[in-house]
Amino acid sequence: MAFFQTISEDKFQADADFVVKESKKMRRIIGSFFLLISLFMLKDVLWMGLLTASIGIGAIIASMRDETIMKINRDGFFYYGRLLTNWTNFVSAEFIDEMPVQSSSSAGLSDQFFLYIKYFKDDSPGCFALKIPLTNTQDKAEEEILAAVRFYYRKSTVID
C-alpha cells in the first residue's frame, strides 16, 4: 500500500489554475461546534462561554472570506497572491511530516505537515526555501498539491 495516493494528471488543465483555499465547510463546522459549546458554558462560567462564543463567531466569519492560500499554474507557484517562484527558478517541492512534539501549550501530540519549496531568485545569489504549513482546513490534499506542482513544472519545460 502506497503512502501517497496517485493523482491522475487528467485532474489538471495546462491553462487553468490549481487553487488551494481554506475549506469554508470545515470552518463553519468548527464555528458551529464552538458556538454550541459556548451555550452550555454560558450558564456556568460566563467568561469561558464568551471566549468560546468569540472563537466560534471568528471561525464563521473566516468561512465567509474567499482568500486563496496557494495558486499553482503555468506561470509558477503563488503563495497568498504573491509569486513565490516561476518554473525557471524552481528547484524542488517536498512534503514534510515533522515529528509530533508535545508542548505545554498543546493538549497533546499533533502532526505538523509542511510543503517545502526550494527556489532561486533572479536578483539574489543562492537557493532559497519556504516552509509552508499545511492545515487540516485546506480544501486540497497534500498529494494533490504535489501532483499539481509536478504537472505544471513538467508543462513549463515542454517546448512548444
Describe the structure in brief.
With 160 residues, the chain is α+β, with helices and mostly antiparallel strands. The chain is built from three helices and seven strands, in the order βααββββββα. It has two domains: 108 residues, no CATH class; 44 residues.
Topology (elements, then pairings):
Elements: E1 18-21, H1 24-42, H2 46-64, E2 68-73, E3 76-79, E4 82-85, E5 90-98, E6 112-121, E7 124-134, H3 142-157
Antiparallel strand pairs: 1-2, 2-3, 3-4, 5-6, 6-7
Helix pairs in contact: 1-2
The structure class reads alpha+beta
Largest sheet: 4 strands, antiparallel
Low-confidence stretches: none
Rg, Å, rounded? 20 Å
In what order do the strands lie side by side in the largest sheet?
1-2-3-4
Q: SSE order, as H and E?
A: EHHEEEEEEH
Mean pLDDT over the residues: 84
Whole-number count of domains:
2
Distance between the termini: 37 Å
Could you say which overall geometry the principal axes of the C-alpha atoms support? elongated
Number of strands: 7
DSSP helix fraction: 25-40%
The fraction of residues assigned to DSSP E strands is: 25-35%
- Total count of helical runs of at least 4 residues: 3
